Amino acid sequence: MKSKLICTKKNVVKATIAFAVFFCLFSSFWFCPLNEFNSIDQCVYNTNAIYYFFLLQIHAPLRLILVCVIPVITMAAANIRLLKNIRQSRRRVAAEMEGTHTTYEQQQQQQIQQLETTISQPARSGIRIENILKLRRLNAIDRMLILMMITNVTMYVVTQVPYHIYAVSRGYYQGLDSYTNSLVRALLLIWSSLYFGLGFYLFCLASPLFRQKFAKTAHALKLYFWR
């Protein structure tokens, strides 16, 4: 019920605009005139000691927290919450199939005892079978969602964390020369960009509903542009 109130299109648009504005401002320091290009067209920002200290000692760790630590914690917490919901759903399904009731089911049963007296036995059996099938479908969807979220969290950690850790460690360790630093940074940037492409294919592998929705959307777009 809470998710229906929170996860609305209006809130998604608001959150998207807020995050876009915030991260645009957060990255606006790279447009500062103190950034210059050296003889081999590399961007350098060590001409000013204060600005150099800010980018390496403040901006980079803060970006690590905002882009890596907080998202990973949020996604992990959502996974834990979803796993808890799946376990509750499985217990309800097992209770329905065995003809027993958990504490939650007992509370629900007490609330509808008066209604059950007005329903015939065949009708109650039909309703019970329908509820079991519905809970099974919901249980399958929950398992699919948790698989998609685990895949998303794993891909995010594997692809995004290495670059930001390197960016932070670069501010404290200056042992690498500029050429090696540029090479490592470029490779890690390429690796981090894989997240935005591989996520689609992993979702297609993990979720039949995602594949069906994508195929349906692609077919609708095809009919729209080729009509």
UniProtKB/TrEMBL annotation:
<keyword id="KW-0812">Transmembrane</keyword>
<feature type="transmembrane region" description="Helical">
    <location>
        <begin position="12"/>
        <end position="31"/>
    </location>
</feature>
<protein>
    <recommendedName>
        <fullName>G-protein coupled receptors family 1 profile domain-containing protein</fullName>
    </recommendedName>
</protein>
<keyword id="KW-1133">Transmembrane helix</keyword>
<feature type="transmembrane region" description="Helical">
    <location>
        <begin position="144"/>
        <end position="166"/>
    </location>
</feature>
<feature type="transmembrane region" description="Helical">
    <location>
        <begin position="186"/>
        <end position="206"/>
    </location>
</feature>
<keyword id="KW-0472">Membrane</keyword>
<feature type="transmembrane region" description="Helical">
    <location>
        <begin position="62"/>
        <end position="83"/>
    </location>
</feature>
